[in-house]
Amino acid sequence: MVIFSRVDTSIMSRWWWTVDRWLLTSILLIVACGAILTLAASPPVAARLDLGTYHFAIRQFAYLPLALLTMIVVSLMEPVMIRRLATLAFICFIALTISTHFLGAEIKGASRWISFAGFTIQPSEFLKPTFAVVAAWMFSEWRKDNNFPGHYICVALFVMVAALLVTQPDFGMTAVISAVWGMQFFLAGLPVFFVVLVAFVFMSGSMIAYLTVDHVKSRVDRFLDPASGDNYQITRSLEAFQNGGLFGTGPGEGDIKHVLPDAHTDFIFAVAGEEFGLIACLFIIGLFATVVLRGFSRMFREDNLFVLLAVGGLVTQFGLQAVINMASTTHLMPTKGMTLPFISYGGSSLLSLALGMGMLLSLTRRRAGGDL
């Protein structure tokens, strides 16, 4: 079925014929999986908190239209507009992230959220996609003109972002942003000496976090030696996958979500494993892999360094976040409170991912060129 004619010159027609439809379809299927799993996983959590049965599902579904609209509208933009949007949003959310240190609501020992008018927003979530695009811009301008100190500006911005996240504290997001930034710096032509230096700094930072931050040390120790502490959530998570087998127990028939505190957020993949089985989990993994591989495929066809670095950053960030969540859930790495993109419950996460994927869809569209 043809939605738009090729002779149609409207903005939506041009978008339809230039957007990467494999990428778009994969993202929409992930969103659909997220909607189904939120309905499956969230009622027991709501019941434990004395909320309405579908409290979390209704809130998530309220954000979905806004998220999809954001993704489509952003994907209609040209690269130069993406750069401007990312810069303005980055400045805005840096200011909001700073304000969390003074006005933020403390939840589970961290001040990452700002509450107003009945809604709670986590500004740092929006730093991930916007910083990736701003960093790509600075690195590309540096490579165009070596007299422009784009790499120094980017280092300063990275130090500022990392410092804000560490002091919240949010070491998981710091690690993701650091990995993406390091990858972009490497692709931009970082000398080998600095590659080694950056790697040393990252490793040293990880070691310092392990030695000085109690909950980081506890999670690593419990991963290496399960008998060294409480592993209740990961034990229940692995039990969920065992119960599910190949085809699962059936929608709504899982038991582990009734005793797993974060079944609708950090451990929603375990709910998928129990109720829908290994086949469904492999399907979800395949969707994430399609987004990542399709993004990299488009990236390596690019002649424009800004687009190459921005797409590389956005795709790496998306894939890395998914890998961390699923690896934590299956005990392949220490547990980390990180959402599974578009699937875990969370309005800030959903909207920030929509912004990031909108920028990715825009930058991977087929175009004859343009002034960046």
TrEMBL record:
It comes from the Bacteria. It comes from Candidatus Terasakiella magnetica. This is Probable peptidoglycan glycosyltransferase FtsW. Its EC number is 2.4.99.28. It is a multi-pass membrane protein. NCBIfam families: ftsW. PANTHER family: CELL CYCLE PROTEIN, PEPTIDOGLYCAN GLYCOSYLTRANSFERASE FTSW-RELATED. Keywords: Cell cycle, Cell division, Cell membrane, Cell shape, Cell wall biogenesis/degradation, Glycosyltransferase, Membrane, Peptidoglycan synthesis, Transferase, Transmembrane, Transmembrane helix. Belongs to the SEDS family. FtsW subfamily. Pathway: Cell wall biogenesis; peptidoglycan biosynthesis.
